[in-house]
Design goal:
With 307 residues, the chain is an alpha+beta fold. It folds into two domains: 72 residues, Beta-Lactamase, CATH 3.30.450; 190 residues, Beta-Lactamase, CATH 3.30.450.40. Helix 3 runs antiparallel to helix 4, helix 3 packs parallel to helix 8 and helix 4 packs antiparallel against helix 8. The longest helix has 37 residues. It is elongated, with a radius of gyration of 30 Å. It starts with 24 loop residues before the first helix and ends with a helix. The relative contact order is 0.08.
């Protein structure tokens, strides 16, 4: 089946009408889109009924089209031609997908929040790993992303929890990243409460250290937000893409911050329960030794005062 006429090529294509006319349909489209169109055309030819579809087109940049395929019949009712009419509906589709994503992320926030309420302190680690996997998958696993939670240490960051889409695993780890030279990232975090890198190659000259580090990891885009509990910054949650540029701020920032608050509360709760358990263990150990710590402390204070 060939293209016999075209009213106007898409505005973002650098092709003239002559480049389309008389070309087989299969030479203009490829892969799943070509197979989908072929099946739709066969259905129209066999049934004599029109067909409608919405689909992405193999153009650069990618656009969304809605397409009507209408049968043209002769006097005997036999289909002799198929009239195809396509419109660029990218803006509408973008809005629909953005709304769908927002609803999905809202539901994800509620699901993760409920899961931590139901978990005991020794189950929080597993809950955080599960949350990182759910967050990473919800923002598009096909783009090859990883999510991680890191804790600040002197001149470095310690990666505590990590989900890697390439490996398909969520793990508790002890990777340490030296960050003493990351002045650009520190300034961004202090000023904006985020580090937003839609495209690593576009980082400014003053971010030379950050660019070198991210490129060494194969990272092409990343986004980091602080984890704040009780007004204290206890760590960070980061996202990495190894496939291409991502508009983190436009698409994900508000709900990423909300998810960060949920994870921060979980981490703070775990730390508090661990501290209480440690204090209880010390108290029990003191009782076993038979030492009267109150009497010892009082004697020490008296000696210190009289001397």
């Amino acid at each position: 089946m060939c293209v016999t006429s075209i009213r106007r090529p898409q505005s973002n294509l650098e092709s003239s009408r002559s480049s389309f006319i008389s070309r087989p349909r299969s030479s203009l489209f490829s892969g799943p889109n070509s197979e989908r169109q072929h099946a739709a055309l066969q259905r129209v030819l066999q049934t004599g009924e029109p067909a409608y579809s919405e689909h992405p087109a193999d153009f650069s940049p990618q656009i969304w089209l809605d397409t009507w395929l209408v049968p043209m019949k002769d006097s005997d009712g036999t289909v002799t031609h198929v009239l195809g009419v396509s419109r660029d509906v990218s803006q509408r589709k973008k809005a629909e997908l953005a709304l769908k994503l927002r609803i999905e992320l809202d539901e994800l926030v509620a699901t993760i929040s409920r899961s931590f309420i139901q978990r005991s302190g020794n189950e929080i680690d597993q809950g955080i790993l599960q949350a990182l996997r759910q967050i990473g998958e919800s923002v598009g696993v096909q783009r090859r992303r990883g999510t991680s939670v890191v804790a600040p240490i002197v001149n470095a960051m310690s990666v505590v929890y990590q989900w890697d889409v390439d490996e398909g695993t969520a793990t508790i780890c002890d990777e340490v990243i030296a960050v003493k030279d990351f002045a650009y990232a520190r300034e961004q975090m202090q000023r904006l409460r985020r580090v937003d890198v839609p495209k690593v190659d576009d980082l400014p000259p003053e971010a030379k250290a950050e660019r070198s580090f991210l490129q060494s990891r194969g990272t092409r885009s990343c986004f980091v937000v602080p984890l704040i509990a009780g007004g204290t910054e206890i760590g960070y949650m980061g996202f990495e893409s190894r496939r291409g540029q991502i508009r983190w701020v436009d698409d994900y920032e508000p709900l990423i911050h909300v998810l960060g608050e949920v994870l921060a509360s979980a981490v703070a709760r775990k730390q508090a329960e661990e501290s209480m358990a440690a204090m209880a263990a010390e108290s029990a150990q003191s009782a076993e030794t038979g030492i009267d710590w109150r009497a010892w402390l009082g004697a020490s204070l008296t000696t210190s005062t009289t001397s």
